[in-house]
Each structure stands twice: as structure tokens, then as C-alpha cells.
Amino acid sequence: MELFAANGPGKAMQNLTGNSRVALISGGVRGIGRAIALTLAREGWVIAACYRKSEKEAEILRSELQSCEAQSRILRADVSDPSAAEDLVQRIERECGRIDALINCIGAYHRIPLMQESVEGWHRMFDNNLHPVFYLCRAAAPGMIQRGWGRIINFSMVNADQNAGQPFVTAHYIAKIGVAVLTRSLAKVLAPHGITANSISPGFIETGSVPPEELLPSFQSIPAGYPGSPDDVVTAVCYLLSDEAHYVNGANIQISGGWGV
Question: CA–CA separation, 137 vs 114, rounded Å?
């Protein structure tokens, strides 16, 4: 694991003696994760965003956070490794004082016919989508319990609760169903400690990672008539992090313009 500080550790720790909260965002340097990091930073949160391979995007986010004078940490960590996930949480708690919100935006996938899927590809979908969510939640929850407050937000996918056949993204789909079940289980276990655990299930969100012309045929099936933006997701995240959502626990918010429901 490597860590890059957008601000010196002294400044972050000094600020944490005040009222700033700390968010750890896995998959936080691209797409939706990046949008969440920038929004929370502007609202005064201390940001820890981790990534595995997106070095270029990590440096861009680091620069953006510096430009808005955000207190932040940009980290490279393979959270599919349980030891690395635990080390990551411990390091953020040590350097930033605590973790108030854990937001798991990880969600890599590939499209391949089910009977052509390899054993390695099958395992990779669970290692990249489900297992890290458990590792990070397990590591971050004790600190939240000790403080009597916490927010966990995990990302599933819009139609995972339908348990429908998905011949081209089977392992990814099953993993996202698992994320939803894990989130509801966390909600029951952690609610007595002042912690909420909810999931967000996006549909088609334009993040710039895929050319719009490639997605146009899919857009035509969206009842709203257009894809969502990262800001649509960020709005839901900010609500779930707020004190107004203290009684929202175990929910799954679908952000899809009516697609897949």
C-alpha cells in the first residue's frame, strides 16, 4: 500500500480536533467515487480515497483536492486482500483519528457469456465486488461502535434485488446481490450502536468512462429518457450521511430513472 497526502498530516490532525468528519471511499478516484470525494471535501470532510490501478486518475484527484484546500489522503491499496484492507483502515484511523463514513464504490466487471467464463474471471468478480466490502466493513465497524456513530454506504446494482438471470455478467450480478444482503445484515447488527448501513443501486450513470454512442441503445430503454449523472448519486450519498437519515437503515436506493425496477 502506498499513501500520498494532499495536505500534510499535521494539518489534517489539527483539523480533526474540531468538527470535521472523515470518509474512507474505496474506488474513490474515478467516476462516482471521485464525485463523492470532491463533494464531501467541499463540505469540509477529510477524505481518504483508495484505488488499486488508477494511478493517473489518483493524481488528478489529488490535484483537485489540493486546489480546493481539502484535507485528504489518496491511497493505493488492493482491498481484495483482507490484510491490506485491515491495514488501510488502521492507517487511516491512526493518521486521521477516526473513520466516520465508509463508502464502498468498488464495482469492476466484465461481460462474457456464462459458459465461456473462466474460473479466474469468476473469482475475480467476487474478489473485486463483494469480498472487499466485507473486509472493509469488518475493519471499520469497531471504531464506529466505540464512538457510537457511523455511516456505511455500499454500492450494489439497480436490478440486483430481482434475482434475474444475467448470462453475460453472472458473477458480477451475484456479487452485487451479495452486497445488498451484506448491507442489510450490517444494518441489523450495527443499528444498536448508532450506525447505519445502506446501499445505493445505480442504473446507467454517465461517468465518461464509456463513449456515449456505445451506450445510446441502452439509454433508449430508460423510462426517464436519459442517463443519470454522478451528481444524482452524490445527492443520495449526502442524504444518507446526514443526521436527517439517522433512522434510514438497511435501505437500498435505486438511482436509475426507472430502469431495471
Answer: 30
Phi-psi domain of 194 (left: phi exceeds 0; alpha: psi -120 through 50; beta: other) = left
- What pLDDT score was predicted for residue 207? 84
With H, G, I as helix, E, B as strand and everything else as coil, classify residue 118: coil
**Set of cell numbers at residue 87:** 491495514
Residue 14 φ then ψ, to 5°: -60, -40
Under 8 Å CB-to-CB from 144, ≥6 apart: which residues? 99, 100, 150, 190, 193, 194, 195
Residue 170, all three cell numbers = 453472472
The mean per-residue pLDDT over the stretch 209-237 comes to: 84
Of the CA atoms within 13 Å of residue 196, those in its CB half-sphere come to 19
- Identity (one letter) of the amino acid at 245? A
Q: Look up the CATH number of domain 2-255.
A: 3.40.50.720
Catalytic residue check, 173: yes
Contact 95, 22 (CB under 8 A): no
pLDDT of residue 14: 36
Q: Is residue 200 within a helix (H) or strand (E), and if so which, with residue range? A: strand 195-202
Q: Are 60 and 139 in contact (CB under 8 A)?
A: no
Cell numbers given for 218 = 441502452
Number of CB atoms found within 10 A of residue 160's CB: 24
Q: What is the pTM of this model?
A: 0.91
The active-site residue, picked from 173, 226, 239, 247, is: 173
